[in-house]
């Protein structure tokens, strides 16, 4: 048992020793930021004897802003690529701080610098960092003064004098002067090498009048650094001070240095992944802002009213003539506002502004960029915008923000964070104050947008945003105007706003005319081991929804008359028989009346057994029914149903004598008058039947059946 415990303790101790050997060097490990200085192709090239100074600076908006954490000096840059490798102590890095690379090349009285720091370490890469440098143009606006080192301190020949103008609120370097000691010229009136003069150029149009600016100074001599403990106020309320004195003291920690200092550029340049330069206004600006609303659907042509077809039945009600309705206008949402910035910088005629509505928690199958507006030319600030969007794409449970920017050659102002709109009680009219891009670019995600078979027209735009998947907020935006793909991007963001456990993605949208390309699924960046540089965003064409045209109104077709049934007569065919029948009835009635006038009255006949005399009771009932007075019903004896009787032989009718026959046949007689011979009924029995039918029709109903008469005599 004791032996087992002893072995376990030995194993644990061995593991602890191994862990200490591995972790301890890592905590104090010296790391390097490597990269290349990029000179402009159309500018004067420094001589091979020029001196380059590359410095790592803490650019956080804190008391330590401007602190130097690493520096490299290259004496004699040579004729080839200017590669650098700046060492720094890994255990001095704070995750919420921002760090940047600043480079200066000094060649006699000329110098080249990168005006804006390149984010590294927490907000960028540490390998393959490209630093573009341009000639420094010294204007009339200078902050001057002197830097004093402690008494008895002698700075060696490898010393570098640095004076920086820093914006307190953001920690941004607004200007600087870097002077290698060998190229140093003592200030007028200086009493010795312990005092060094400086003159920091700055652009007054890029000074925020509401911000405070201080000058910090440092003297780097190998691994030893002398630095100012606090910045000296230099610009307040937009007014610059002059004649400053900046004391520096030795810091408690030393910075790692490249030892020995190389006399030329390092022979083995680190492998540099392509990283685009900071976002800048491209030469080809977008031509016009995209259409704010879909074009109206053409108005439908009213269909002609169909004429109803005559029908034997009642004519159908004619359908109302359709009225051509106006083309429906797709409902649109509108976001309005202005873009402005605090600096007094005047935009050029080529400045471009852009606004994007970004959905924070959108559907995976759709781009989170809901709508964009490009304003070209931008004009002067404040710049009004009116962004239209499709309300059908709005999810009331999602977070929507506006990302905006103004881009003017190498100057830019952007939204440091997205401005909430639409949902959660946010406004739809906002006044957006943009941030000077160097103030916002404490971190930067760089890469390119690419796609297959994408052809861009003049004025195409590429917009990329960084999206916080957890909160739904957009934390950075970049806008360029590429001529083709791949299109580089550099999206600024604030390091202090990041959550190391958060999830961040890049979404891009390329617009050319009516065509749009986007990536539906975001590309992970920044945290969880994802890159900040070399990010590739592949876009594909987005099918733009178009409003459905209104249906063309069609007149209701008139009912088609059913086909005539077999043997059925139509109106025209039926009219003629009716006229003939009426004529026959009239002739028959006339003949019957005449025959009655000439015949003797017929003897009365006995009442039929089938129709007994109703008697007094029947007469009373009829009278009561006639005058409407109530009467009591008179009971009558029930009689058995009358069985059908045999037809009674008709009484013989006496034959016509010669005079009657001659009268009937006489054309001049009363019958022939106005009557055709064919219309005369020769058979008296037929005439009697016609007369009976006429009397029945005149009486308004069928008569009681009577006993049949004796058949006529032949």
Defining key terms:
six-stranded antiparallel beta sheet; seven-stranded antiparallel beta sheet; 714 residues
Explain what you see.
- The protein is α+β, with helices and mostly antiparallel strands and 714 residues long.
- The chain has six helices and 37 strands.
- Strands 11, 12, 14, 15, 16, 17 and 19 form a seven-stranded antiparallel sheet that branches. Strands 2, 3, 5, 6, 7 and 9 form a six-stranded antiparallel sheet that branches. Strands 21, 22, 24, 25, 26 and 28 form a six-stranded antiparallel sheet that branches.
- Helix 3 (571-598) crosses helix 6.
Class from helix and strand fractions: alpha+beta
Strand composition percent? 25-35%
What does the radius of gyration come to? 55 Å
Largest sheet entry: 7 strands, antiparallel
- What's the β-strand tally? 37
Shape: elongated
Ends: how far apart?
A: 154 Å
**Fraction in helix:** 10-25%
Number of helices: 6
| Overall pLDDT level | 73
Could you list the spans in which at least 5 consecutive residues all have pLDDT below 50? Answer: 15-27, 259-320, 322-327, 561-571, 607-641, 648-652, 669-682, 701-714
Spell out the blueprint of helices and strands:
Elements: H1 2-27, E1 30-38, E2 51-58, E3 68-75, E4 82-89, E5 99-107, E6 110-113, E7 118-120, E8 129-132, E9 134-135, E10 142-148, E11 160-167, E12 172-180, E13 195-201, E14 212-221, E15 224-227, E16 232-236, E17 239-240, E18 244-247, E19 249-250, E20 333-340, E21 352-359, E22 369-375, E23 383-389, E24 400-408, E25 411-414, E26 419-421, E27 429-433, E28 435-436, H2 437-440, E29 443-450, E30 461-468, E31 474-480, E32 487-493, E33 504-512, E34 515-518, E35 523-525, E36 535-538, E37 540-542, H3 571-598, H4 615-627, H5 658-665, H6 684-699
Parallel strand pairs: 1-8, 10-18, 20-27, 29-36
Antiparallel strand pairs: 1-4, 2-3, 2-5, 5-6, 5-7, 6-9, 10-13, 11-12, 11-14, 14-15, 14-16, 15-19, 16-17, 20-23, 21-22, 21-24, 24-25, 24-26, 25-28, 29-32, 30-31, 30-33, 33-34, 33-35, 34-37
Helix pairs in contact: 3-6
